[in-house]
Amino acid sequence: MRDVMTSQSAPKTLYDRLWDAHTVVRGDAGKDLIYIDRHLLHEVSTPQSFELLRDNALKVRRPVTQLAVPDHAVPTSERGGAIKGELARKQVALLEANCAEFGIEYLALEGERQGIVHVISPEQGFTMPGISLVCGDSHTATHGAFGALAFGIGASECGTVMATQTLWQARNKNLRVHYAGQLQPHVTTKDMILALIGTIGAGGGIGHAIEFTGDAVRRASMEARMTLCNMGIEAGSRVALVAPDDTTFAWLKGRPRGPQGAMWDRAVEYWRTLRSDDDAVFDRTVEIDAAAIAPQVTFGTSPDQVMAVDGTVPAGPARALDYMGLEAGKPIAGIGIDYAFIGSCTNSRIEDLRAAAGVIRGRHVAEGVTAMVVPGSTVTKHQAEAEGLDKVFEAAGFAWHHAGCSLCVAMNGDFVPEGKRSISTSNRNFEGRQGAGARTHLASPAMVAAAAIAGRIVDVRKEFA
Amino acid sequence: MPGFTPFTAPAFVLDEDDVDTDIIFPARFLLHTERKGLGRFAFHDRPALLEAYEAAGKPPILLAGANFGCGSSREHAVWSLDGMGLTALFAPSFGEIFRGNCANNGMVAGVMAADTLAALQALAGKGANAGHALSIDLAAQTVTCAGQQFAFTVPDSDREMLLAGWNNTTRILALHGQDISAFEKAQRSAAPWLWTEETEA
Q1: Sorting pLDDT into bands at 50, 70 and 90, what band is B201?
Q2: Which pLDDT score is estimated for A427?
Q3: Residue A231 burial by Cβ neighbours in a 10 Å radius (0-12, 13-18, 19+)
Q4: What's the ipTM?
Q5: In chain B, domain spans
Q6: Are residues A157 and A27 in the same domain?
Q7: What is the distance in angstroms between the Cα of A376 and the nearest Cα belonging to chain B?
Q8: A410–B contact, CB cutoff 8 A
Q9: With an 8 Å Cβ cutoff, is A268 touching chain B?
Q10: Contact with chain B for residue A296, Cβ under 8 A
Q11: Same-domain check for residues A134 and A191
Q12: Which residues of B touch A141 (CB under 8 A)?
């Protein structure tokens, strides 16, 4: 961390500052050797990484910087006892066995600390400002909400990180996304990020690290900032950042894996330097008027095929409209839905659950709609239960599940049947993402809750004001 | 793995943007924990595409649309493309994690300007005056087809690795073990809160 305590003369962006602080070797072929402070593991992306270690007779360099938890393949409708699906059971058991063999901490499925990697890591204070953090999962940019250099990697790279604590990586360009002004009621950071993806496209951020700035970002809670950064990859950016501030420090203080006592003060002193200089130069800037953002909903099969809920379905792409069973020129509001899913690393935190519960309180899910809530972590689940939110959801006809990825990636037994229409707080509306032939509309927790009650896509601002 | 050697072969055209890794490798097959034999799951939910690929004689080169391999980080996407017989991909852009995964598995993922790619597709794809084979020279970053040259790019460091067939992991340890130790020593003193769970070696 050659840049830690000194202020360099040339102005820097936050991203450049983090990059420089983690550069072990400046390469001459377009990549730098970057030090990795923390690595999160889950059952799906690491079996082959451990094989790489075994094939090359390698050890894990710093086991305490690694943390493993099962989330993708785990059933969420019941917990305790053996997992019924044979492949899922073996996959989870393999993660536990690999961690035991290589000395990595494994958070058991039945334990209090289990949940989606991107929810539990901040919760435990494993995520901190200023660190570099990777995971074999594309939504790792979530941790950029704390001002961490966090990005998703492949399974081979997970093996490289475990063995060397480094990765060769190309430095990205800097993209500043500035949200001036304040959001309307019922409009969230989910709508902010969907609006951005719609503006720059699903590949618009390729080669760029995003830094989110502006009033609407500063006012956002940590949960809301995590939602914002989570979907950077849906615009093509592996890295999405918010500079840490007092909101960040207050949220992190006292977390079990974070710095304690005098070490906390020392860390905060450094964390306060983690910002872009006022005169830092960004390669590109996108400005968005936060006050003008309406609740967003996707209409196609890529997250950039997104629109304001009060608009009409655009013309094309034809393949996407055909798959989604939608007609160009018709309002998106009023389209009937069969499934409503509240969960995923994008929107499964306590604030998301509170927002959804606020909409449905005293109401009931429309006939024919299957609605479910899957908290992002067991800690979140228990907190929600302590607040009585589970009762609100169950009284409204939502199923209340255990923590996991569930219907975001549909590989744990939860899925939407072919041809059925789902509205979902998750991050991807890809063909088949929630089940082969399933149709997915992405939206915020309040919008999904409102649609579950109405049985069709509605503008939460109008129907639940 | 062995280093890349130039080869000549026909190509298959997939003219569609934003083909994500869920299309390439549907998530429900991610429960498989092996790397080999995943070719049977590639494009599983796109039977028409597989039929066309088979009918074309399973060529080892794919000419794809923009943002190919976007979405999930699953390396299974690359393993399954390799398993179905592909060794080189060309597109106007790639999902970044996917592109890195390609390099780590000996798969060429070359970026080609959209108009260059369109011209190449016209020569390599189906139809009259098409179906020409492509000669791939990774070191020169060119594809030759029907006597014409088409430029592509693979990042320098990926190209070096692909040509030499390096093992990225053991190479880092061999060449930079001391650099890493020096970095760790400096970080331990500058940011000790990141090291509280480890005793000094």
Answers
A1: low
A2: 98
A3: buried
A4: 0.96
A5: 7-164, 167-201
A6: yes
A7: 19
A8: yes
A9: no
A10: no
A11: yes
A12: none
State the pLDDT at residue A1: 45
CA angle centred on B30, ends B27 and B32, rounded to 5°: 155
Of B26, B30, B17, the residue nearest B50 (C-alpha): B26
**Per-residue pLDDT tens digits for B144-193:** 999 999 999 999 999 999 999 999 999 999 999 999 999 999 999 999 99
The residue among B117, B114, B62 whose CA lies nearest residue B84 is B62
CATH number of the domain to which A299 belongs: 3.30.499.10
A45 lies in a domain?
yes
Determine the pLDDT at residue A8: 53
Residue B173 Cα, gap to closest chain A Cα (Å): 6
> How high is the pLDDT of residue A244?
98
- Picking from B34, B72, B180, the nearest residue to A165 by CB comes out as B180
Q: Do the domain assignments include residue A250? A: yes
Q: Which residue of B has its CA nearest to A236?
A: B95
Residues of A in contact with B18 (CB under 8 A): 202-203, 302, 304
Q: What stretch of H or E contains A89?
A: helix A86-102
Q: Are residues A253 and A314 in the same domain?
A: no
Residues A331 and A223 in one domain: no
All residues of chain B having their beta carbon less than 8 Å from the beta carbon of residue A433 are 22, 27
Going by pLDDT thresholds of 50, 70 and 90, the confidence category of residue B99 is very high
The pLDDT averaged over each successive group of 10 residues in chain A (465 residues) is 54 98 94 98 97 97 98 95 94 98 98 98 98 98 98 98 98 97 96 98 97 98 98 97 98 97 97 98 98 98 98 94 97 98 98 97 97 98 98 98 97 95 98 97 98 98 85
CA-CA distance, A356 to A347, in Å (whole number)?
10
For domain B7-164, say whether CATH 3.40.50.1100 is its number.
no
Give residue B170's pLDDT: 96
Q: How far is B90 from chain A (nearest CA, A)?
A: 16
Give the Cα separation of A448 and A16 in Å (integer).
37
Q: How far is B85 from chain A (nearest CA, A)?
A: 20
Among the partner-chain residues A30, A153, A430, the one whose CB lies closest to the CB of B22 is: A430
Asked whether residue A4 is domain-assigned, the answer is no
- Identify all chain A residues contacting B42, using CB atoms and an 8 Å cutoff: none
**Nearest chain B CA: its distance from A147 CA (Å):** 15
Tell me if A8 is assigned to some domain: no
| Mean pLDDT (whole number) for B31-53 | 96
pLDDT value at B125 more than 90: no
Task: List the single residue in B100, B155, B190 with the smallest CB-CB distance to A154.
Answer: B100
Q: Which residues of A115-136 are buried (b: 16+ CB within 10 A; e: fewer)?
A: bbbbbbbbbbbbbbbbbbbbbb
